[in-house]
Each structure stands twice: as structure tokens, then as C-alpha cells.
Amino acid sequence: MRTLPEALRRRLAAPLPGLDAQLRMAPRPRSGPEPGVELDTLRPAAALLLVYPHEQAWHIPLTVRGSGLRHHTRQVSLPGGRVDPGESMEAAALREAHEEVGVVPSDVEILGRLTPLPIFVSGHILYPVVGVASQRPSFNLAAHEVERLIELPVRRLLQPDSVAWEQRMRSRPPHGLMDVPYFNVEDAQVWGATAMVLAEFLAVVAEFEV
Q1: Of 2, 89, 96, 111, which sits 20 to 30 A from 128 (CA to CA)?
Q2: pTM value?
């Protein structure tokens, strides 16, 4: 099972699928920045897309955000958060994964990054960091932040029935209905920025055995 990390490292060092792949899981119509908002004004955030072997398959940990949080309650996301001053994207992603789900940073081998994703609704630009662990981490959830952990087999995302659509009301102007794609996994809907990051990751690993 060591083949995937080695192939991923090489692939992440090459030109990435980028926006075209991300847009496969973007709401339609996709909202852009508000007038006057520039990319360089967005606050950096980092997320860890960790792959690890479990039950003879590669998995990714996703978190269901706690219902007591102020924002994005019960949404599914990768472990991550804001980047502290002077902190690298990799260090921030590892720190957040340790704080949220107990992943030990020294147990993670960083393989590279996916394409940064602007999230205009929250004023952030997300840097997805890809890492691998040689075995399943001993997860320890931060109860105030994480309601539950989803251990998602990568191959599940590649199945034809993993993607579904629904209509939702846009939360900011221009208000109206939008068509939202999502990954339907573990009785949860993975949509928005997390789904867009996963879409690019799937485009990267599509040629590999997972």
C-alpha cells in the first residue's frame, strides 16, 4: 500500500488540475467576490487532507462540526483553520489536525499541496495540504469543535453514486436558489469548499490504485 503516497508526491509536484477540477463540485451558479474584494485581502487558512491505510484501503478523515460552534455548524470539513502569523501552511494544517482530531504531527509525512481555494463568503483562502500516515491515527476528538469523525474510504468517492444534487437558497446576495452538488457519504453531505478540494484530489488520484 506504499505505492499511493510515492505516486502522490510526484503528482503533486507537477501542474495540478486546479480550478477546472474544483468546479466540478461547486454550487451553480457560483458566487464570486463582492465588489472591492481582492484575493490578496483574503485571510489564509490551511486544511489537512490526510490519507492513511485502514482495513486494506486508503481513508481520509473528515469532521462534522459541533452544533455549539458559531459558524458552519454540522458541516463536514477537513481538519483545518486559520494560519497564525509566521506559521507555514503545513504547520498550520498539522496543528489544526492535532487540535481537532488528535493526529500527531510527527506521524504525518507531508506530500505536497493542492490548489489554493478562495472562499469569499468567509473571507478566507484555503490551502489544502496533503499528508500521509503509515497507519490509522489514534483519533481524539475535540468535543467542543467536532461532533463526530467520518473515516472515508477514498474509493467510495470514486463510485458513480457518491455524488448527488439538491437545491438550496443562497445565504447572501444575490439571493435565490442554487444547485448544489455534494458527496453523499456516511449519512452526511459533503459540499462547498470541502467537496471542491476533494474533487481536485480525486482528479489527482484517478490514475492510481486506491
Answers
A1: 2
A2: 0.92
